[in-house]
Amino acid sequence: MQQTIKIAPSQQVHPLEHRPGVQKRRWRKNRLELIALPAGIVLLISLWALIAKVGDYPTFILPDPLSVFNKLVEITFDGTLWHHTQTTLVEIVGGLALGLSTATILGYLLAKSPLLERLTGPYIVASQSVPAVAIAPLLVIWFGSGQISKILICALVVFFPILVNTIVGIRSVDKGLKTLMRSLQANRWQTFIMLEVPAAMPVLLGGLKIGVTLSVIGAVVGEFVGADRGLGYLISLSKGLFNTPMMFAALIALAAISLSLYLIVTGLERWLLAWRQ
Amino acid sequence: MVSPILQVKSLTKAYETTYGELLVVDNINFSVMPGEFVCIVGPSGSGKTTLLQMLGGLLTPTEGAVLLAGQPLVAPPQEISMVFQKPNLMPWRTVLDNVTLPLQIQGVPRQEANEKGQRILQLVGLSEFAQAHPRELSGGMEQRVAVARALVQQPRILLLDEPFGALDALTRERLNREILHLWRTQKLTAIMVTHNIHEAVLLADRVLVLSPRPAVIAADFQIDLPRPRPQGIEYRESFGALAYQIRQAIRE
């Protein structure tokens, strides 16, 4: 009689996340993070207050935390801060969207067609020998001091890293899985959606993470070159007025933008790449 | 008289290389009857995988044809499923979603696909792991998921390309038993490539021996051992004699 194959209960293993110990450990780690972050911020601000107090610098060189806080409250409530933050935010997100979409589409095509890569590759690499921010003045001349020129600068800055990551991501798709999709008679679209996109996702998100931070830089540099609003403009205006507390307030707003965008991408990563944890 | 389910007619495959034409498979002929279990053995690099890929419609032969129920094969048909050397699971999909992948590609509604997937997972003893991800599985379990995926579209022919080659001896033995069980209960025709002679004798009704490249069929052994194969058959004299004969037929 043929032996039937049954798994004995003792051999059964529970999937990792169903084990109680793992969840407890994870929670403890989260709680530590929850305490460590505010504690670090409090420590930094105290240090700053101490240096300002001991050094007794004039406010236009190093304002103490309280005067920065007062300034922050003042320009928050009279709407100035939001006016500039919103401008810069639109530039950052718009540039990111433009750069991201063109870079991923072109990256996908280049990854798929070695011929296209050979033809356009040298131009793309050569274009990177000039820093994207260095042509910001040119873009301001061409497209004016409004938001369009800043969006273009941001798009240019994020374009290359995302392009490279897309090519690497699509090229790294497992060969065995490609053969599998072929043996299952998957069409091009199914292979794209079911295999290439999820397989390249980790690398794509890595590119987006870099892109987000670069986009903030692009917007600020663009506004330095020529603008009439935005956080970069607010910083150069503060410089002219020797209004250092306002400059600090603008910097804090910029840091907040960078941090929130970064956290959004991290959250996206945690959600889309949950299978890796 | 039952007609063969798969016929291989003067099948030839040559690759263009920088050194000229490389003949890998040279004018192979054989047929497989429905319900037969055929093992193909041969030295490494003898074109076993190339042959199997042509049988599965993944590679176009340079000359000759593979006939499935009398019709020439042009693309991978639904009646034929493959199990590869590697499990080839998508790490971002759960076990169930990996198993139902072929059905999703065919556009089977989600619920129906999931029901079928659950049934197959039960068959290979992995229903507890339906929602687990591949990284949580052992090598043997991963390959079992790959077998389940191959069976989910209810193929008539199962092609196996050294599926358990990377596993330890005990797991391999157990999975071979499982394959035999599935082959019998699901009424499959199975063609398996292996370089393990004992495995071939244990599983097959027939063992084809390939010559070194370019591959031709050097020998065709009928394995007249009782079915179902009893436990411990590997240690019988008749088993050893057959294995020895096959070993003699393989030139390296």
Provide tags for this entry.
heterodimer, A: 277 residues, mainly alpha, MetI-like fold, 10 helices, flat, disordered N terminus, B: 252 residues, alpha/beta, Rossmann fold, 2 domains, six-stranded mixed beta sheet, four-stranded antiparallel beta sheet, 33% helix
Topology:
The complex is a heterodimer of chains A (277) and B (252).
Chain A: H1 20-55, H2 65-77, H3 80-112, H4 114-127, H5 136-143, H6 147-171, H7 175-183, H8 188-225, H9 231-241, H10 244-272
Helix pairs in contact in A: 2-10, 3-4, 3-6, 3-8, 3-9, 5-6, 6-8, 8-9, 8-10, 9-10
Chain B: E1 6-17, E2 20-32, E3 37-41, H1 48-55, E4 63-68, E5 71-72, E6 80-83, H2 95-99, H3 101-106, H4 110-123, H5 139-151, E7 157-161, H6 169-185, E8 189-194, H7 197-203, E9 206-210, E10 217-222, H8 237-249
Helix pairs in contact in B: 4-5, 7-8
Indicate the proportion of strand residues of chain B: 25-35%
The stretches of 5 or more residues of chain A where confidence is low (pLDDT under 50) are 1-13
DSSP strand tally of chain A = 0
Total domain units of chain B: 2
Rounded mean pLDDT score of chain A: 85
Mean pLDDT across the residues of chain B is 88
Q: How is the quaternary structure best described?
A: heterodimer
Largest interface: A-B, 30 and 36 residues
Through-space gap between termini of chain A:
44 Å
Which residues of chain B form runs of ≥5 with pLDDT under 50? none
- Strand tally of chain B, please? 10
CATH superfamily of chain A: MetI-like
> How is the biggest beta sheet of chain A arranged?
none
Q: Structurally, how many domains make up the residues of chain A?
A: 1
Under the CATH scheme, which class of chain A?
Answer: Mainly Alpha
CATH H-tier superfamily of the largest domain in chain B: P-loop containing nucleotide triphosphate hydrolases
- CATH architecture descriptor of chain A: Orthogonal Bundle
